[in-house]
Amino acid sequence: MKMVRGFISFTVSLVFLLSAFSPAAAAKRVPAASDKNPVVFVHGFTGSSSSFDNMKQWLISQGWPSNYLYAIQYSNTTGSSIDNAYELQMFVKNVLRQTKASKVDIVAHSMGGLSTRYYVKHLEGAQKVDDVVTLGSPHHGTNSSYFGLWTEGAREMVPGSAFLNDLNSVDETPNGSDTSAVIQYTSIYSSADTIINPYTSSIIDGAANVEISGVSHSGLLSDGSVRPLILTGLENGGANTN
User: Fold this and answer.
1) What CATH number belongs to 35-234?
2) Average pLDDT, the chain
3) What's the pTM value of the predicted model, to 2 decimals?
4) Is 110 assigned a catalytic role?
5) What pLDDT is attached to residue 176?
6) Domain positions in the chain
7) Which element (helix H / strand E) includes 208?
8) Catalytic-labelled residue, pool 110, 144, 190, 202
């Protein structure tokens, strides 16, 4: 009898363990959707998605799920910001499909801020983006671009280019399609940035423009003084006064 009871006890325990690790049970244990938006990182001229590896780890420490952090790698890192914007559009669609979220936040470095703003202004970004944070982006061009005129990306960043005139026409901070929650913009830039010349080119009319000092162009990606500013921008601390 003791052997029978022992066998029954073992069987019950085994059934419990199997049910606990079944696909159905696992599905019930999936965490609820994050209260944060997925973040899409956009690199700049000759940049790489790996530029944001450290920032991803930092955002995880700030409460972002690791599967809510995505960095795009453009197929042509010196190409047109218009072409890049179309790649960004497809990338965001995939992120939203994977995360089941309705909108993303975007953190863009340098030229990545231009393709981001084009995506918001002319493509689907108006429906898909909540917060935009740019780091040292030449929103009004940079004289450094004259050193790379054989590339389309650099030609578009020449101050007064047709691309920039179009991008900055009418409204530099488009509100998007959701009138109840307009897109919030933050532009963080450094007076020590010698790549964006003049550095004040990073100012966007209508955004929360945050000037810092002592940080290089590439340093904007990793400097500890910049990170709290990024965090504020991602938590609806930007502006849209247009």
Assistant:
1) 3.40.50.1820
2) 88
3) 0.86
4) yes
5) 78
6) 35-234
7) strand 208-212
8) 110
